[in-house]
Task: inverse folding
């Protein structure tokens, strides 16, 4: 169920869930089995810890119930992830995971309607569905910009999490993945403005999707 909620003191549980799931995936031991000979290295695999496993279970249950998590809790998690050497890879993967899970909130009936519509009408509905997902889960407002898209975040917790705005890569990845799920977008999402570097709002722009629907 997608919720078009105003910015609140809480963040949808899908977001911290995706970050921790990605962290765990990045920290899976190497398949060659050599990690066992490097105890000092394996102890740093936070994603494989019992604490992270318990939190994943907690967030998964909350996400299934369409619940939200205290915003400061998510900011602290973003700060933790941003300090990792693989932060860029982690945020990109987490954004895709979050978008995939968020897209599942679109009802089967609405998806059937979307696929049955004529091409032009289907593209228009697809843009609306992407906008609903981005606003309801990520607090990101999606707008058409010519044949491309522009998005801006109503929430500024990401800018609080990392002084350089590095955690905004999570949102950029989620925007791109959501657009690919519901539209014919096939390009890059660029972070043009960021609160962390003094802009009034975090803003993303895309290139032109395939085709010329408007």
Result:
């Amino acid at each position: 169920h997608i919720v078009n909620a105003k910015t609140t003191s809480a963040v949808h549980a899908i977001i911290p869930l995706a970050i921790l799931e990605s962290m765990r995936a990045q920290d899976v031991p190497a398949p060659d089995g050599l990690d066992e000979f490097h105890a000092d290295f394996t102890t740093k695999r936070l994603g494989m810890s019992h604490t992270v496993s318990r939190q994943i279970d907690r967030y998964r249950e909350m996400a299934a119930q369409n619940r939200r998590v205290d915003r400061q809790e998510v900011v602290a998690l973003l700060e933790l992830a941003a300090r990792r050497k693989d932060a860029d890879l982690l945020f990109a993967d987490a954004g895709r995971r979050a978008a995939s899970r968020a897209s599942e909130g679109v009802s089967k009936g609405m998806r059937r309607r979307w696929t049955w519509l004529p091409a032009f009408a289907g593209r228009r509905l697809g843009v609306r569905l992407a906008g609903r997902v981005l606003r309801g889960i990520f607090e990101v407002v999606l707008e058409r910009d010519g044949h491309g898209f522009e998005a801006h975040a109503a929430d500024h917790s990401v800018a609080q999490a990392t002084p350089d705005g590095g955690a905004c890569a999570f949102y950029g990845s989620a925007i791109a993945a959501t657009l690919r799920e519901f539209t014919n977008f096939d390009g890059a999402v660029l972070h043009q403005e960021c609160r962390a570097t003094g802009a009034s709002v975090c803003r993303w722009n895309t290139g032109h999707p395939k085709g010329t629907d408007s």
Observations:
- The longest strand covers residues 140-145.
